[in-house]
From TrEMBL:
It comes from the Eukaryota. The chain crosses the membrane at residues 12-31, 47-72, 92-112, 121-154, 174-195, 207-228. It comes from Saccharata proteae CBS 121410. InterPro entries: Rhodopsin_dom_fungi, SAT4-like. It holds the Pfam family Fung_rhodopsin. It is found in: Membrane. It is a multi-pass membrane protein. This is Rhodopsin domain-containing protein. Keywords: Membrane, Transmembrane, Transmembrane helix. The keyword Membrane applies.
Length: 351
């Protein structure tokens, strides 16, 4: 067994910290979300938990196994059985990568859909969810049918193999789906931009929100780097597949971290109270109803499970001061919702 120790050290040095941050951010999101609400995880939280388990456990294990079978070493220096095992592991990596990114993308778009309630935005999110699902299912089908029979994908590399079968041009196939994947990544990153630009936020908060969403560029860059490596796989698969799969791991880990980043806002507000502002009180409306306006940042990242308290006082016709107080989870109230006075906990005081 030939192990490239230099690549092993590089991979462990890069992947272990990234997977640690991805796992830690997922645990933090679960803690500030479902645990704080004492409820089952929401659908987007469920997707990101699945993605974290697939990425952290599956991808890292497979990448290390590939190194144990000579990944990064020229094919002529390897035993044929090691080459076959690398192709088998690569087939598994394709599945892990595709399933992982499907969960991450659905988690982000579903979060968008819940945060921004404008009708046109919801329609665009639904269309994007449908497109992502269809293209991912097609990609998974192409993985199954890379070769017929399936095991011909790796058995054809056995010396003096009597295996018979047929394979599609998996390099072209993987490049095509990779290009679609990069396009959907860019769509997800820039989709909320028009809504964010229209928000009336202080400059510091607008910069902070832009930075949070701007981190989504990192997985896009990793995906582009992975596409550039694909063209080299056919020239010497065993030399370049480890580099290719390392970029896959980087992309998955950073995507999970970016997906969970908004849940860090309550922690940042606690550590840096001057960074995000103190929020606003609700605007006054008519006598019978009141519109609730959440804090600046919570209007954007409503998925956080931080409790917000809104108070306002107004005078009704009989000259009684009514103090209205509502304690709620920000994520449960869509933008622009109108809350009637009867639905709130009220306390009357003499004027």
């Amino acid at each position: 067994m030939i192990i490239n120790h230099r690549l092993l050290n590089i991979q462990l040095g890069a992947m272990v910290p990234l997977m640690f941050f991805a796992t830690t951010s997922t645990m933090w999101r679960f803690y500030t979300g479902s645990w704080a609400r004492r409820s089952w995880p929401s659908i987007e939280e469920t997707f990101v938990i699945i993605a974290c388990n697939i990425g952290a456990a599956g991808c890292l294990i497979v990448l290390i196994l590939e190194l144990c079978y000579g990944s990064g070493v020229a094919q002529e220096h390897l035993d044929p059985s090691a080459v076959v095992m690398q192709y088998r592991l690569q087939w598994v990596v394709f599945w892990i990568y595709t399933a992982n990114l499907l969960c991450i993308k659905l988690s982000i778009v579903l979060l968008y859909r819940r945060v921004f309630s404008q009708r046109i935005f919801v329609i665009v999110c639904d269309a994007l969810i449908g497109f992502i699902t269809i293209t991912t299912v097609a990609s998974m089908a192409s993985i199954v049918f890379f070769c017929l029979p399936v095991n011909y994908f790796w058995n054809q590399h056995l010396p003096n193999s009597s295996a018979r079968g047929h394979c599609i041009n998996w390099e072209a196939n993987w490049l095509a789906f990779g290009a679609v994947h990069v396009a959907t990544n860019l769509a997800i990153v820039f989709l909320p931009a028009p809504v964010l630009l229209s928000l009336q936020l202080p400059r510091r908060e607008k910069i902070f929100v832009a930075v949070i969403f701007g981190f989504g560029i990192i997985p896009v860059v990793a995906a582009i780097m992975r596409l550039l490596i694909i063209r080299r796989l056919t020239s010497d698969f065993t030399v370049y597949n480890n580099v290719h799969n390392t970029w896959i791991g980087v992309e998955m880990a950073t995507a999970i971290f970016c997906c969970n980043l908004p849940s860090a806002a309550p922690l940042l507000r606690k550590w840096f109270p001057g960074l995000l502002g103190k929020g606003e009180r609700p605007q006054r409306s008519g006598d019978s109803e009141m519109k609730l306006r959440p804090t600046h940042l919570d209007a954007v990242i409503r998925s956080m499970c931080e409790k917000s308290i809104y108070r306002s006082s107004k005078i009704v016709k009989n000259k009684i001061h009514v103090t209205v107080e509502q304690i709620m989870y920000v994520e449960r109230i869509p933008p622009g919702i109108v809350a009637s006075r009867d639905s709130l906990a009220t306390k009357q005081e003499d004027g």
